[in-house]
Amino acid sequence: MSPDAVQKQSAVEQWYGSNKNPAKGSSDDQSAASIEKRMKIAIQGEPGSFSHEATMKLLPDAAIAPFSLSADVFSALSNGAVDAAVIPIENSLAGSVLEHFDLLLTHDVKVVRETLLRIQHNLIAIDGTALGDIDRVFSHPVALAQCRKFLAAHPKMESYAFYDTAGSVKQLVELRDRHAAAIASEAAAHYYGASILQANVEDNAENYTRFFLVCRSADAISDSNANKISVAFSVENRPGSLVAALSELSSIGTNLTKIESRPVHGKPWEYIFYVDCQLQSAAEGDRALAVLKPHCAMVKELGRYQEARP
């Protein structure tokens, strides 16, 4: 291996070594006293992430509690360490965040609001770095996948998956790596004091992520203007049971906007189905649950909320 290759390998290894500092459930820019005065909202990822941005859109005065893992977000919500959580549930290009469906099902929580966030990716570097200096780009694998055209147009830039978009900017600034860049939000660049070398490097401008605001079921307050319901159900193991369940929803005029299936852990080839339905009234939501139950082994309402629009 040439000396240059050894040096580059060492630089990359440093990114994944002891300097990496994923979120642990606290925000270093907020005093404990100020957090106590506001709703404490758990997110997966670092401050400056898209989840942070979505939280500020939903609850501008919220205090952010960042966590490394989604499972830790739900644990903190369940044990009362935070007041609520904001989680991404679906991206218009990459599809659903499947782990979050499982966590919604297995925890005693309710979806109370949703929002859509336009995802704009930026190439970010430390101050004084030129575009031609960059030979390594770090970001979450989904973000890298959404910027393939930009990366293909800059073959010198080798991409590396990192645990978080904002986390890659945080690491970049900590290491002062002038030959690396991160792909993340404008908010992340401002939060960590980095510079945007090139804005809007995503392949497709119609890139949105849908986020849920989730709280403990005991704390959920009914929204009289709710026009959407999310439901999880499993059907009886007999021919036509899924078709029958969906036909019942259609028969009462409920508009099904999404369906997702997830395997049942420990039961090969059995599935939980997740559906979103538009509602004309609260009564229609009640009827939807009622018509599903005769055909299903399990039905769980995940939440009723107002549908978000771009």
Outline of the structure:
The chain has 310 residues and is α/β, with parallel strands linked by helices. 31% of the residues lie in helices and 31% in strands.
- Nearest-angstrom radius of gyration? 22 Å
Whole-Å distance between the termini? 51 Å
Q: Outline the biggest β-sheet.
A: 6 strands, mixed
Indicate the proportion of strand residues.
Answer: 25-35%
Helical percentage:
25-40%
CATH architecture of the largest domain: 3-Layer(aba) Sandwich
Instruction: Give the SSE string.
Output: HHEHEHEEHEEEHHEHEHEEEHEEHE
Shape by Cα distribution:
elongated
Mean pLDDT: 89
Assembly status: single chain
Descriptive terms for the model:
310 residues, alpha/beta, D-Maltodextrin-Binding Protein, domain 2, Alpha-Beta Plaits, 3 domains, six-stranded mixed β-sheet, five-stranded mixed β-sheet, 11 helices, 15 strands, 31% strand, elongated
Topology of this protein?
Elements: H1 3-15, H2 32-36, E1 40-44, H3 50-58, E2 63-67, H4 70-78, E3 84-91, E4 95-96, H5 98-106, E5 109-118, E6 122-125, E7 136-139, H6 141-145, H7 148-153, E8 158-161, H8 165-175, E9 180-184, H9 186-192, E10 195-198, E11 208-216, E12 228-235, H10 241-251, E13 255-263, E14 271-278, H11 282-292, E15 296-305
Parallel strand pairs: 1-2, 1-3, 7-8, 7-9
Antiparallel strand pairs: 3-4, 3-11, 5-11, 6-9, 6-10, 12-14, 12-15, 13-14
